[in-house]
Structures are given as C-alpha cells and as structure tokens.
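U., I forgot to send this yesterday:
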Amino acid sequence: MHNKIVDVNKVRLQWRIQKQRWRRRHREQGLCIWCTRKAEPGYVYCSDCLAKNRETTKRWKPKIIAKRKKENKCLWCGCPLIPDEKTICIMCRVKEKIRHIRY
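Result:
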C-alpha cells in the first residue's frame, strides 16, 4: 500500500511539471495559459479568461480578507501576525519593497 502512495505522489509531481512546461510554452508564444487563444497584450490570459478570473476574484477575495482579519493573519499570505504587525507580515512587506525597487 505504501508503494501506491509514492506512485501517486510521483504522478502528481510529473503532472505539475508537465503543466508548468505547457504554461511556459504558451506564455512564450503569447497564448492564454488556460484556453490557448491569443492573450491580451501584457497579460497571460485572453480577454474572456481575464474577465472570468476578475469575476471569480471579486467573489472570493473579500471573504478571504474578512476571515484573515478575524483570525489576525496576514492579508496576503495568511500566516499568523506577531503583535507589532497590523495587517501584513514582515515577509510580505519585504517582498513588496523588493517588487517596488525592481520597477
């Protein structure tokens, strides 16, 4: 039985690697990484998938943020906050600063 678990994990890893390659190829070719139509300029999704993604995000994001605020967790990554931190953990703040420095 233990061998089956290892095989399932191996298959999942192979599937994830294959999916990453597929998305990378499509991204390089300027195709949507979900449906393979032509992606919008500056995005990795076509206009239809971009609209679907925005609608989905509008529905679930407020729920996630409310839950994390209630549980005193970082709004971005969900890790527990230390008493000095208000809404975003120190690691997310560092990542955000690095992101702003690069651009």
